[in-house]
Amino acid sequence: MLRPELAPGDSSTPPRNIEALASAGADCVVVAASTPELFAIEAAAFIRDVLVARFQPQAIVEGRNFRFGHNRAGDIATLRDHESACGYRTVVVEPVQQELADGTTERISSSLVRRLVSAGEMTSVTAALGRPYILTGTVVPGAARGRDLGFPTANIRTPAVLLPGDGVYAGFVDTDNRAVPAAISIGHTPTFAGDARQFEAHLLDFSGDLYARSVAVHVTHWIRAQQRFGSPEKLIAQIQSDIARVRELTK
């Protein structure tokens, strides 16, 4: 809101964030809308008039670099200065370090996750998140090229969230209360000179109509980059190879 030209792509949606918090044990989630009025509240007033008056917290849990209030003037020291008067204690959570697929150890942050997703490094994304990267969307009609080639795909329209970099991936699609292994393609269909970026999934050993249905796609492994093939036959041979790889990775 403050500098929209620099805003990074969202790696999740508010409903999925709330779902994740609930699954982790949250009894109630309150979303504070990012508005000029919220950002204008001084740090001390935010503690007194928002946190304490509305929620009567016993503890406030934050990271060491947490900043809040007008001009980000409040910090952990500000929270601790008001503990006695307001009846709460401040709990500081240290950064989480995690070994990634390449053997390096990184501090987990949303910026790191976005970088890994953009690079298609989905094994490291899973390590950083503690779960696979999940995209939700609605199945919409596509060009039906996959069906014509013998590999029907679900063409998925997602909200404005960060997609992994162009490529072919292995993963799962949640449908009918089960996770179906899938070959996932993200990119511009270079063999057919496609202009719009596509997000498609071929569900293995699946038959059924998914049109207009909402699905959740778990992207787990990078397989290969998008590439142009000289003929549909060469593309079919590569898809068969991709599907064999997906079967290995999703056992």
CATH top level class name of the largest domain: Mainly Beta
Indicate the overall shape.
elongated
CATH fold-level label of the largest domain? Elongation Factor Tu (Ef-tu), domain 3
Distance between the termini: 43 Å
Report the count of strand segments: 10
Number of helices: 9
> Gyration radius, to the nearest Å?
22 Å
CATH superfamily of the largest domain: Riboflavin kinase-like
Structural class assignment: alpha+beta
Can you summarize the main beta sheet? 6 strands, antiparallel, barrel
Work out the strand percent. 25-35%
What is the level-2 CATH architecture name of the largest domain?
A: Beta Barrel
What is the string of helix and strand elements? HHHEHHEEEHHEHEEEEEH
Poorly predicted sequence stretches spanning 5 or more consecutive residues: none
Q: Return the domain count.
A: 2
Q: Portion of residues in helices?
A: 25-40%
Main sheet: strand order? 5-6-9-8-7-10
Q: If you average the pLDDT, what whole number results? A: 92
Write up this protein.
The protein is of the alpha+beta class and 251 residues long. It folds into two domains: 4-93, Rossmann fold (3-Layer(aba) Sandwich); 132-249, Elongation Factor Tu (Ef-tu), domain 3, CATH 2.40.30. 31% of the residues lie in helices and 25% in strands. The strands form three sheets. The chain has a six-stranded antiparallel barrel with strand order 5-6-9-8-7-10. The longest helix is centred in the last third of the chain and has 18 residues, at 232-249. The radius of gyration is 22 Å and the shape is elongated. The relative contact order is 0.12. The mean pLDDT is 92.
